[in-house]
Design goal:
Length: about 240
């Protein structure tokens, strides 16, 4: 079980699905379509079954349990794995450093407490939560030591407004120096922290989408040593997402 899923109750509430990845954020003043890698063959529809699909390419449709936003994605090939009830997807080699990668999704009505300092999250939890996509992005950009990209406004394949950005860890960070040995991004009521990095030199690509007045947040994580072809598959998965 990877560290992201330590608080399994929370993740079962708020993830919708995953597969192929975020793109590196670049500044943009107007909404632009998210590019999608066209499939070489028609994907197979899969409802409520574990990954991977025997066909290699599949749509996974989350059931929206407990009010969660349902997300549909396209798997690039056999090798990506996950279980709907755990609300995550892992790359062919798993999520662990130094070369792993995967995606976590948060898709229910929650108030996001974005820590001011991911290393010292216990003392920098804000008094008030971020409740809109703009507030979440603003708080993530302001986090200490993350070296964020400029947020990019995008439009998803199904026409929804969203934003994406990339966050980095300090290269000289010693995790044991952080609160509880954890470099954490955010928490919610009763779950502090709720999302944190897996290991040193992790890169986090964040996709936040407004879904009929609600928020879906997808986090694609990988490392400096993760093979580029797998990172591109992660990007394609995130780019393929549609939301119900």
């Amino acid at each position: 079980m990877n560290a992201y899923l330590k608080h399994s109750k929370f993740h079962k509430c708020l993830m919708g699905l995953l597969v192929a990845g975020c793109t590196t954020a670049t500044p943009a003043s107007t909404a632009t379509p998210v590019s999608t890698r066209p499939p070489s063959s028609a994907p197979t529809a899969v409802r409520g079954t574990p990954f991977p699909s025997p066909a290699g390419r599949a749509h996974f449709i989350a059931d929206g349990s407990r009010g969660g936003v349902a997300i549909t994605i396209t798997l690039p090939r056999v090798g990506w794995s996950g279980e709907r009830d755990e609300w995550h997807v892992e790359g062919p080699g798993g999520f662990q450093p130094p070369e792993g990668l995967g995606i976590i999704s948060f898709t229910v009505d929650e108030e996001f407490y974005v820590y001011g300092d991911p290393c010292h999250w216990q003392s920098t939890r804000p008094d008030s939560p971020a409740t809109t996509a703009d507030e979440i992005v603003e708080a993530l950009v302001a986090q200490a030591s993350r070296n964020p990209s400029a947020p990019e406004r995008i439009t998803t394949n199904d026409g929804r407004a969203g934003q994406r950005l990339t966050l980095h860890m300090p290269v000289d960070l010693v995790l044991s120096d952080c609160d509880e040995g954890t470099f954490a991004m955010l928490g919610v009521a009763g779950e502090d922290p709720a999302l944190w990095v897996q290991g040193s030199r992790e890169i986090d690509e964040i996709l936040i989408v407004e879904v009929d007045g609600r928020i879906a947040l997808l986090e694609g994580g990988y490392y400096e040593a993760t093979p580029q072809d797998l990172v591109e598959e992660l990007h394609a998965i995130l780019d393929s997402a549609t939301f119900d």
